[in-house]
Each structure stands twice: as structure tokens, then as C-alpha cells.
Design goal:
By secondary structure, this protein is mainly alpha-helical. It has a domain of about 80 residues: D-Maltodextrin-Binding Protein, domain 2. It is built from 4 helices and 2 strands; from the N terminus they run βαβααα. A two-stranded parallel sheet has the order 1-2. The protein is globular and about 50 Å long.
């Protein structure tokens, strides 16, 4: 296993650290903390860091030549995603397009029940 990990932190906690904890392993040595998935993937692609990122993004043409995807049996906790906007303030055309795409994609996903 790699000695370093690039990981984001957030209100839901660090998913990589949680997986190590659940497996009763010593915590990973976090070498870099970023706020955006593409920043994390850039760190991983430019170093010997490991990280826990969506395989679909790691397989993106921009990264797939520089990142090795290692399948793991454990499943990371889900990350809830939501759209928030101010009432009475119209979205810009670009923001409206992004919101429309997000809602359209969400409708294609299977219904999820909270556990």
C-alpha cells in the first residue's frame, strides 16, 4: 500500500480514512488535502500518492495515462449532492444548463433509501 494519500476533507469526513478505520488499519499518511476532485487527481497523477476517487473520473482521457485504478472490495460511503439556489434570483444560462443536466442525470439513477 502507498505511504501517502491525497484526499479531500469535508463535513462528511474523509472517506479514505474511514475505510482504513473500518478495516482496523493505522490511519493513512495524508500528504496533500485538496478541495476539488480534479486537484486530487492531478496530485495523484504527478506523484506516487494514492487516493479514493471515482473510477469514472480516474479513467477520463486527461488522467487515464497517468493514473492506475486499483479495485478494492470495500465500498466508500455515498456523497449526497444537492442544488441550492436563491429564491427570486434567476440562474445564469450556464448555471441553468448545469442544473438541468444534474437533474436529468439524477432521474436516471436508481432510487436510494437512507440506511
Amino acid at each position: 500500500m502507498g505511504q501517502h494519500a491525497a484526499a479531500r476533507r469535508g463535513a462528511l469526513g474523509n472517506k479514505l480514512s474511514a475505510l482504513f478505520e473500518q478495516a482496523k488499519l493505522a490511519p493513512p499518511r495524508i500528504a496533500a488535502t485538496t478541495e476539488a476532485v480534479f486537484d486530487t487527481l492531478h496530485c495523484i497523477a504527478s506523484s506516487d500518492y494514492i487516493g479514493l476517487e471515482p473510477a469514472s473520473l480516474a479513467g477520463h482521457p486527461f488522467f487515464r495515462e497517468h493514473v492506475e485504478i486499483v479495485p478494492i472490495a470495500e465500498r466508500a460511503a455515498r456523497t449526497p449532492v444537492c442544488l441550492v439556489r436563491r429564491a427570486g434570483v434567476p440562474l445564469t444560462p450556464a448555471a441553468q444548463e448545469l442544473a438541468t443536466m444534474a437533474v436529468s442525470f439524477a432521474r436516471m439513477l436508481p432510487a436510494q433509501r437512507d440506511a
